[in-house]
Write a structure and sequence with these properties.
mainly alpha; 2 helices; 0% strand
């Protein structure tokens, strides 16, 4: 059961990272604040997968 919760958390982090990448691609010419979203989402995604693997 904890592995499933960790995988659900990874899906949320991956979705946040993909949304940030999309915003960065769409608004590449102007002021952009989506890079922290991409970074945090990617860290959440990878960390959650590592945690699921360790459980």
């Amino acid at each position: 059961m904890p592995q499933l919760v960790s995988q659900f958390n990874a899906v949320g982090g991956g979705a946040a990272a993909l949304i940030g990448v999309h915003d960065f691609a769409v608004h590449a010419g102007g002021q952009n604040a989506s890079m922290p979203v991409v970074l945090i989402g990617a860290v959440t995604f990878s960390g959650s997968l590592v945690a699921a693997g360790k459980l």
